[in-house]
Amino acid sequence: MITQFTEQNFLQFTLQHEWGTAIDVQQTLANGTRMEIWDSGVVCFTPAQEASPFDLVLSSAVHGDETAPIEICDSLIEAIRCGALQLKTRVLFLIANPAAINIGERFVEENMNRLFSGAHSKGEVQNKERERAKAIEGYVRRFYNEGGRGRQRMHYDMHTAIRDSKHEKFAVYPYQNGKPYSKRQLQLLAALDVPVVLLHDGPTTTFSYFSVNEFAADAFTLELGKVRPFGENDMQKFAKTKQQLQHLLTEGYSSYEQSGNPNELAITIYKVLRSINRTQADFRLNFSADLANFTAFRKGDVLAEDGDTQIRAEVDGEAVIFPNANVAIGQRALLTVTPIEISAVRMNEQ
Ligand SMILES: [Zn+2]
Fold first, then answer.
1. Which of 44, 73, 189, 289 is the most exposed place for a label (fewest CB within 10 A)?
2. Mean pLDDT along residues 139-163
3. Rounded Cα gap, residues 40 and 137, in angstroms
4. CA separation, residue 78 to residues 19, 74, 107 (Å)
5. Separation of CA 58 and ligand 1 centre (Å)
6. 350: exposed, middle or buried (C-beta count within 10 Å: 0-12, 13-18, 19+)?
7. According to DSSP H, which parts of the chain are helical?
8. Phi and psi dihedrals of 272, rounded to 5?
9. What is the pTM of this model?
């Protein structure tokens, strides 16, 4: 059992212990910030004097080849460790799938972002990604529970996309179980340089929906740009996002509350129109494999052919995201979305 952490770099340590390790570190940094390491890739920081009313989970590498969020978290973690950032917000960093990072792949055996809300334990399949997803659920539970009742819970699960996108950065706002969306959170997303939000319309097995559903967290999947290998990310493109994350860690909400008129939400909102599943072995998408996310079609355009059935756009501007013809039969091959007016979104003021 490791009880003292003297490694130079937390990410490097994590990559050397790719499926977790016996570790229980509780150290106080020179500036009073408390650092607890619960597993490889799992570090919790508690500020000496807490000012923020929320607890924040920052997760990366649910997909191992999505490097920019890992680099952002690495740099924030080391800045906290060395005292360059003076925390006011309690934060849990999760580097979800180190083994996938090590091989430079999205996952080793199974897409981890389909394994949450207990999906890791359904069926006969057993693999390390399932074990890791289950362990990660436990760390999130511990983090929010130790923060205590009455505190707001936030979670940004950070990704980059495989394909190009008409909107470089966008957030998926998970299904809220019927509750209204949060205006404040939409403002925060705009401040994070994520000005496009897709409202999801049902329960899923993603990490962000897990935090919404189990902890009533304000949780989001953030798509921050396109996948690149380590060292090839243009970090300038992520500078604003990273800076705003730093503000959340060191100032809480105050940095964004002073900026701009909250009633003028500079944000574009899409809703899900429908989910198109592959039902036949003979399934084809009627556009090129590298089609950019949010590409819009005209009413009547053929989107896909599922056996003998032609699937056509139902409305002008129906846009396609996350297409994948190679999913298993019965699974989602693409999602279609359409922009909606902000006034049509049911929001509260928090
Ligand atoms: Zn991803």
1. 289
2. 94
3. 15
4. 21, 6, 25
5. 14
6. exposed
7. 10-16, 67-81, 98-103, 128-147, 183-191, 207-215, 239-251, 254-257
8. -75, 130
9. 0.94
Q: Which amino acid, one-letter code, is at 212?
A: V
Is the CB of residue 52 less than 8 Å from the CB of residue 88?
A: yes
The rounded distance, in Å, linking the Cα atoms of 85 and 76 is 8
In the chain, the largest separation of any two C-alpha atoms, in whole Å, equals 67
Q: What percent of the chain has pLDDT over 70?
A: 97
In the prediction, which pLDDT does 211 show?
98
Contact between residue 239 and residue 308 where contact means Cβ atoms under 8 Å apart: no
Helix (H) or strand (E) holding 242: helix 239-251
Give the mean model confidence (pLDDT) for residues 204-217: 97
Return d(Cα 55, Cα 34) in angstroms, integer: 14
Tell me, in angstroms, the distance from the centre of ligand 1 to residue 115's CA: 13
**149 has a pLDDT exceeding 90:** no
> What digits encode the pLDDT tens for the residues 262-286?
567 789 999 999 999 999 999 999 9
Structural contact between residues 311 and 262, judged by C-beta atoms closer than 8 angstroms = no
Gap between the Cα atoms of 113 and 94, Å rounded: 14
Nearest Cα residue to 85 out of 130, 15, 135, 31: 31
pLDDT given for residue 229 in this prediction: 87
Residue of 71, 82, 10, 64 lying closest to 238 (CA atoms):
71
Closest CA relative to residue 60, chosen from 80, 81, 43: 43
Question: Does position 30 have pLDDT exceeding 60, yes or no?
Answer: yes
Q: Tell me the mean pLDDT in the region 201-211.
A: 95
Any idea which residues carry the catalytic annotation? Answer: 223
Residue type, 227: V
Phi, psi of 136, rounded to the nearest 5 degrees: -65, -40
245 alpha carbon – ligand 1 mean position (Å): 19
Residue type, 23: I
